[in-house]
Specification:
Blueprint lengths: L10 H12 L1 H7 L19 H6 L8 H15 L5 H12 L11 H4 L12 H7 L11 H16 L10
Helix pairs in contact: 1-2, 4-8, 7-8
Length: 166
Amino acid sequence: MSAAARLRRTPFTRIARRIAVAGTGAAVLALPLMGATSASAATTTSAPTAATAATSTVAYSNNLDGWIRESLAIMAQKGIPGSYNGIYRNVMRESSGNPMAINLWDSNAAAGIPSKGLLQVIDPTFNAYHVAGTSWNIYDPVANITAACNYAAHRYGSIDNVFGAY
C-alpha cells in the first residue's frame, strides 16, 4: 500500500487514542477540550456524603511508622500533645523500635516491674495513663506509644520534651 493510500493519523486522533487507553475518567475530563458541545457528554459522580466519610477508616501500616501515625491520630482526638519526631526519637532510644522490648536489668526490673514495649513503660504507669480506645496489652505498639505520650504530657508537657529516661 502506498503512503498516500494509508490513513493519516492527525494529532487529534493520537490524543483521542491516548485518552481512550488512559481510561474513561480521563476521557470525560478531556471531552470539553476536544470539542464536545454539550455538558451531557460528561458523566458526573456525586461527592461523598458525610455518612460515607464518617464510616471510612484509615489503614495504618503495621510497622513503626504506622504505629506512630495511628497513635498521633488518637492523641489528636484526645488532646494529647506530641509530634512524630518526638515519639520516634524516644522510641529509638528506649527500644530501637522493638515492640516486644523488655528491660530486665534496671531499678524497675529489680523491683519486679520491668519496663516494656516501644517506649519502655512499666505496668502501673501504663495502667494509670492508658488511653481509651487502645488495647490494654502493654506490648501493643499503639497502646504503648499512646499511654507513654499521655504520661509524658502530664509529667513533662509533651513527649517532645523528653530527652532521656523518663
